[in-house]
Amino acid sequence: RLFVDVPQKQLVLRIKQGRSLQAQDRFYKSSDAFVNVHFTGKMHGKMKKQKNKTSIRRKTLNPIWDEQLHWSLSDFPEFDHNAKIVITVWDQDKLRQDDFLGKMTIPLKDIVDHAEGFNGWFALLDKHHGRAGYVYL
Prior knowledge:
Largest sheet: 5 strands, antiparallel
Oligomer: single chain
Order of helices and strands: EEEEEEEEHEE
């Protein structure tokens, strides 16, 4: 679920699970998946980015994270209609660079317009904008 906690002045994202992710480990036919989340917006006229990430779920194409991430909205005093949440899913590699699995973007204005927040399955897109699995918020 993705929502704004107004009393706490926080943006809250609960990442439940992933489904049908791409297998990057050819031997195990699985991935060591984690989620990177960026919240970008303006602060005093300059773009600012806050990052957060989940733990890694090993050897699965259907990871369960069930983790909650928070961002302080007091760091972003101006409402920026271009602000957004970018959610990317990665496969961790110990010996090489992590592999990109998929991405989704949610504009902050969409979150503000839905007071109850967002929840459900959302499609991830690969580098070529094709389906790359799903994430449940």
